[in-house]
Amino acid sequence: MDTKRLRETGDDESTAARFSPERIEELKEFSKKQDIYGSLARAIAPSIYENEDIKKGILLQLFGGTRKDFGDTGRGKFRAELNILLCGDPGTSKSQLLQYVHNLVPRGQYTSGKGSSAVGLTAYVTKDPETRQLVLQTGALVLSDNGVCCIDEFDKMNDSTRSILHEVMEQQTMSIAKAGIICSLNARTSVLAAANPVESQWNKNKTIIENIMLPHTLLSRFDLIFLILDPQDEVFDRRLANHLVSLYYQTEKEQEEEYLEMSILRDYMAYGKSYIHPKISEEAGQAFIQAYVDMRKIGSGRGQVSAYPRQLESLIRLAEAHAKMRFSQVVTIADVEEAKRLYREAMKQAAVDPSTGKIDISILTTGISGAARKRRAEVAQAVRKLIMEKGKVPSLKYQKLYEELKEQSDFLITKEMFNDGLQDLADDEFLIRTGNLIRLCS
Prior knowledge:
This protein has 442 residues and is an alpha/beta fold. 50% of the residues lie in helices and 16% in strands. It has a five-stranded parallel β-sheet with strand order 4-7-10-3-11. A three-stranded antiparallel β-sheet has the order 16-18-17. A hairpin with a 2-residue loop joins strand 17 (431-434) and strand 18. Helix 4 packs across helix 5 and helix 5 crosses helix 16. It is globular.
């Protein structure tokens, strides 16, 4: 029996036994360093050039928030784990970051989207060779309970495999009903996923949903979504090449220093996760409320939704993780400010509507931006007006109607926009489309 995998979360005896009093004192001294946040972030995958905010996000994910269980009062549990998605151009070291985190975390699992099945991620039923009874074998998500599950090639997963993640990423449980075995397993895991765009290279004129073709219901469950793009800039290319070449002639002493940094980082994280459980102070609570109101206010002026309660929960988890990283038992305003900054940096990249250049969180939550939804309604209205002007006609030709609409319109109307407009009118029972003919409903 693997006791390491089955021990309770609150059981800190194994952790306490691992650290000597001298080591604990050393870790506490280390936490008082002036730039502890930057030092720890730079220690994550030091061979990967720059990407500082992404490393800071992963660092906070490794610490996680404070777990809260209000099951006795009927309010349920609150997720403490952070989920991060990395997406962007090929060859931008996404897989290397995942491999590094997998090797760093004691309870990490690494899997690839193409090589993963629904059964491999959840659990499968098999017969015990000795007793001939049905037994349940757990998969990657359950095995990485209280750890990190790294999923590479996330966009190449099939839909049935991906649908499993909905429950794990929000409720932190895995419900199984197979061969008479019905149970709910804990899967309190942080998901670190990497995805490539559909066209191999990131298209800046498309939204994130159109670029990576993932369902918005799944994207909204990620606390941070980072884009890692190839800037194609000569100065950046020269620095990157210089950094890569320098890795090949590192001395043994430099390698030893790097190894020491990794061992300190591993112990520092283990101690922080086990013993530091920060509580939100009154000032930080007010700062969270104000941050959420401000985020909502940004979009309300132009009829868009720029934040949902899920975004507020993400901010709270990020601030708690930042406090935990400092070995602080209280979440302060400084933690809230860093959580806001990091969240804003991620949103600036992932949730920007290319047509307006503004942040629109509804892209992640509904799959379509507020501006696109408004434009779709305008096209439907224009089609309705054009048909009404023709008077009582039994049927209309699709192509002819499309050409007429294009001539009348002030902005470019694509076939896709026209089809969406017709679909909206069909839903309103205004018309019926059969092939290339459009008939009006009587």
